[in-house]
DNA sequence: CTGCACGCTCAAGTCGACTTGAGCGCAAGC
DNA sequence: GCTTGCGCTCAAGTCGACTTGAGCGTGCAG
């Protein structure tokens, strides 16, 4: 079965203009055209699902997404880099989550100023920063 | 102890121009000025550490970061939203990580086209998308 | 046969978060 | 006394990822 650009857009929650843009930059070409009209098939929907998965939330740039989904075996190291970057981000997001949880559970009115626990942690971060760039 | 703008920038791996920008948008004001020259103290470094933690990788916009770090008790729900968004992102990043791991371990030359396991998963995602937007 | 929905192209505009450039001041060292 | 380094302001430029607008074509319901 074939889908029009607006159907694809609707089903994936993506703007029509974004799909035209993906075509323009050769990230996702339609299966074909009826006259001048783009038509998309299953294969393209698969690819779009992958693109969406890797690209949403600014997880990866479109260029990186394209590189990651390119043909093998050119791309092993590219994919490894992507995965490592994703892992680093998960770590950082967990740190952020811990901080936010603390802000929500801390009994102080303004934890950023008043909480001794948070203060100790920030002192550590700041000291590390101050020490870490000593040689530069 | 007081730090100059270039010291702060160096220690945190942030550009001087970014710090001036943070001042301009009232996200991080210097502790004071010697003449026209910005000086930063411990308190500002603490705040910068927090900003950095929440904002890097496009985790949160500067506006959201500012809102999250604002005085209480205005901000409880803002912080909750931030935390929920962070959690959702962690989930999505994990999905992306799983995909990338699969691409790295799958024995097929071009898993996106050839791997039956991946194909099954993508079919599911696509079917969900096609079904999920039925009422719209 | 006249709207209206939907599609198309191409060029220009937008947004956040900075960066860059022009033009200036001030202190230290050769 | 002049260059070098660091700092300042203010306006304009940049980048990615789209979005918007102008202007056009096509098919079909009323």
From TrEMBL, chains A, B:
Q: Pfam families recorded for this chain?
A: MerR_1
State the superkingdom: Bacteria
DNA-binding: is it a keyword of this entry?
Answer: yes
Q: Which UniProt keywords apply?
A: DNA-binding
A single GO molecular-function term is: DNA binding
Q: Where is the HTH merR-type domain?
A: 1-59
What is the name attached to this protein's record? MerR family transcriptional regulator
Provide the species name: Actinophytocola xanthii
């Amino acid at each position: 079965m074939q889908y029009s650009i607006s159907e694809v857009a609707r089903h994936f929650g993506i703007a029509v203009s974004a799909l035209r843009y993906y075509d323009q930059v050769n990230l996702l070409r339609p299966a074909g055209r009826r006259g001048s009209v783009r038509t998309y098939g299953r294969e393209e929907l698969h690819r779009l699902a992958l693109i969406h998965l890797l690209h949403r939330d600014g997880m990866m740039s479109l260029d990186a997404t394209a590189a990651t989904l390119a043909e093998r075996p050119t791309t092993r190291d590219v994919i490894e880099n992507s995965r490592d970057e994703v892992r680093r981000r998960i770590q950082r997001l967990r740190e952020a989550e811990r901080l936010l949880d603390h802000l929500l559970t801390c009994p102080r009115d303004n934890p950023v100023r008043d909480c001794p626990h948070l203060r100790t942690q920030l002192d550590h971060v700041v000291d590390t920063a101050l020490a870490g760039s000593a040689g530069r």
